[in-house]
Structure formats: structure tokens, C-alpha cells
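User: Fold both of these, please.

Assistant: Here is the first one.
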Amino acid sequence: MIKWILTFLCKFAFTAIGLSLVACTEPKSVQEPIRPVRVTTVYFENAVNTSNYSGEVKVRHELSLSFQVPGKIAKRLVDVGAKVKPGQLLATLDPPDYLDNEASAVAQLNAAQAELSQARKDLLHASNLYEKELTSLASVERRQDALRAAQAHAEQAQAALALSARKTAYAKLIAENAGVIAGVEAEIGQYVGAGQTIFRLAKTDEKEVVINVPENHLDEIKTASEIKVSLWARPGLFYGAKLREISPGVDATIRTFTVKVSILEPGDEVHMGMTATVYVRRRESHSAALVPLTAVSQQGQQTVVWLYDASTQTVRPQAVTLDGYDDVNAKILTGVKTGDRVVTAGVHKLLAGEKVRLLEGGKP
């Protein structure tokens, strides 16, 4: 019995010693994985400010088409949106009155020409008699005067016929320029006066975008180094443009100036009424570095970026001064220099002096 108790006590002691040794053993440290980052290299260049304004595509020239004579519209051959070519017939007036006048002018011309022909015969006859001393010189001179009067009468009738023919031609409204019918101001059966607008023709050879610019942004429009236009209907496609006109007066309500920007070489896909965005770029005298917005973070009251040191493969925060930002990039004025490498992803989880590794595609 005593032997069994001693055996039990020995086993208990060894077990306790073993447990105490296990308890005293220090746990193994777990090494944190090295954080992956992506970097970009800083380059300084002259800063460029970009502003954009929404506007509408319009044509530079819009003509008012009208008849040169009064009358009732008999035919209208085009509608709004129709493309027309030079020489195309657009509308006609009811022609009977003008045709009757032209017929009357033809008759008067015929009568004048008959009178002229008779005056020539009379003069010739009188001249023959005078040569035979069968009539007096005064008689010949009277025939000469009658011939001159007949010639003047014939010329007058010829001019009257030409005028009547022009008026008949004016009863047809012909397009003199190519373009698009932007408006119709009269209908068939309507009596119109001479010079009254029938159509508004938009010449499509010159197109522009009309925008409203606040008065405090006029200088950037005037000194722009580049102007481009993009259509909402065709995103990603840009057209060169130039400033054409700034209105002399400001809108009293919204305090903006109307600015017209000409589109250089617009294609057929640029239509009147389309919504467009005008991008105005102005190059500044000072230089700045563009970095992705994801590279910039805030620490307290400071704006910082994280610089990557290739020799130690560590990062550290660096305070910077910004000159604004756009939808993609921030513009840094001071705090970094050309050649510095800035972390562009995961900056909110970095610690000063932390060792990192570059993602695939980066260079250590």
C-alpha cells in the first residue's frame, strides 16, 4: 500500500513539473506580412488649370429667307430640319398676277418694236425722196426724230418686260446657300409681304458652342492655351475649338457673359441643339506635379503623401502643398521633387518607417 502511494506521488510530481515547464515556455512571435504598395514617380511641369462649361451647339450664321414680291403662298416644299442645296426650290407664290403682267409687258414690247420698224421704213423712204429732191430736209429730220422716239419706246418696253420677268421669277423662293431649315414662319395659303420671313436657314459650314461664363472667369477664357469641345452624345471624342466672341454686356440676373466658341472642323455628326462641354485649359507660369488623388491623405492639419525609399524599401509621410485638384489628380506645388516615388494605393494604412513591397509591375 505504501509502495503504491509513493508511485502515485512520483507520477504527480513529474506531471506538475512538465506542466510548469510548458507554462513557462515563451510563445513564438508571428511575423506580420509585408504590405504591398503601388508607387508613381513625381515629375514637375508647368501647371495647367482646366475648367469646363456646358453649352449648346449652334450655327454661326442663320439667314432669313423671304420673297422679294408680295403674294399668296401656293407651295411650300420643305419642312423644319430639311437639308437644302444652293439652287433648290423652297416655295412658290400664286403666279397668275405676275404671269399676266409679264404677258402685258411682252405685248407692249411687240408694239414698240413694230413702231420702231415702221419708223425705220419711214426714214428710209424720206431719205430716198430727199436724194431725188422730192421732199424737204425738214421732212427727213422729222422722220429721224420719230425713229429716235420709237427706239426709246422699244428700250422702255424691253426694260419693263425684264422687270416683269424678274417679278415672275421672284414668285419662286430659291435657296442661295446650303444649310438646314431651322424654322418655318409661313404656311400654304397665307398672304405674305415682300421681305417677310418665310424660312430661317442655318448655314452648317460654321458651328459653335454658346456658353455662359461667370465674370470672374473671363480672364481664363481670354488667356486659354487650349480649348476643346466634347459632345454629350459622343463622350471621349474631342474637337479643337477657339474663342470667337465674348458678349459686351453681363446678364443682369445670373451675372454671366455669353461666350461663343467656334468648333474647328466639325463633322456631320455635330448637329444643332446638341449639348456640349467646353474644356478651357490655361498653362500657369509656375510648375506643379500631378499625382493621383489616392496618393494624398490628411494627417491632422497637414496634407501628406507617402514617399517610398527604394534602398530600405520603407515609406515615410511627407507634408505637401497643393494647388488644387481635378476629378483624377492632385497638383502638388511644394514638398516633393522630381524623381521622388510616391505611394498611390493603401496610404491610409501605412506607418512611418514601415517596410513595404512593390506590387507586380513596380520597380524597387
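And the second sequence with its predicted structure:
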Amino acid sequence: MKALLPLLVAAAFGAIAPAAHADTNDNWVVRFGVHAVDPKSNNGDLAGLRASVSSSVRPTASIEYMFTPNLGVDLLAALPFQHDVKLAGLGKVAQTRQLPPTLGVNYHFMPESAVSPFVGVGLNYTAFFHTRSAGALAGTSVSIANSWGVAAHAGVDVTINPKWLFTADLRWANIESDVKVNGSKVGTAKINPLVYGVSLGYRF
């Protein structure tokens, strides 16, 4: 999906005729799309073994309130992402689900233009649940602690008409969670993923 994102952005730029963003009193923007959570390549050591966490793609939604044409606050939500946890030499040892609601402040550089890039910063809370052991750890109790961390956001809005827009964006979140097996800590999973995708938005 990393390779597809630039192509989707380019297609949107080519398919949508340039048009100035209309001067409206619409302060809310809702977006529905799809995003991938792609953990960084080195996810730390658990029980002395190198851990890896798989990527996951799910439908997402966000809502943004524009205090000014340039400044907005947004909240990201999604269907639960699902990840496999593997250990070097042992393969898959657990599977977990997580919800990553993220609240942030975005600055839109050119809100009156047909193409408006933005950047943002915020706070991420990741809740892990339905964690189940597998493989070499089958039959044990595996738990992953919930996580609070900073988040960064960047993307571009492409105006379709005064009400509709296309958005391609990239987020980064600091997610580091203690992992326990049968109640004993075996290490910290350093997930720190990139979250990237596309969405269709509506102003109201």
C-alpha cells in the first residue's frame, strides 16, 4: 500500500479539475476511508528474542472541526486493527487487536485552494484487546498494555466541489507497550507505526 499511496494522490490531482475552495460556513468535515497501520521494522526484544508485529488495513473515519479556515481539531477512529506478533526463531506467538483513537490539531496551509496540504500534531491512545497466544506460547496468557503517546499528521486535501473533498494522509504514532506472559513482563513492544491511507470527506 505504500507504493499505491503516491499513485492515488497523483490520480486525484489529474482527475479533479482545479477549483477554488468555496467560501462557506461549513465548520465540520467528516471523512471515511481506509488506512494501513504499518509498524516499524524493529519492534524490540521480548524474552530475549527479536519481535515483529504485522501490518493491518481497516476502514477508518475521522471528524474535524475548523475553528478558522486554517486551524482544525480532528479525531481519528477505525474498526479494530489486527496484528500477528512473531518472535525470531519461533514464528507467530500471539495475535492481538487494537483501537487507536487519535486527537490532534491540524494546520491547513491553503484552505481556499483546490489543493491544500496540512500538518498536525496530537495525542494517541492505543487499546489492545483480544490478545491470544499461539505457536510456542499456546496455552499461556499473553497481554499487551495500553499505550499513550504523541502523534504527528501530514496530508493533502483535494477539493472536488464545495461540499466534497479527497484526502490522502500519513500519520505517525508513538506506541510502546509492555508485554506480559502469565503475568510476568517479558519486554516492551516498540510498535511506533506509520498509518497511511486515503479518504473521502464531506463538509457541513
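The radius of gyration is 19 Å.
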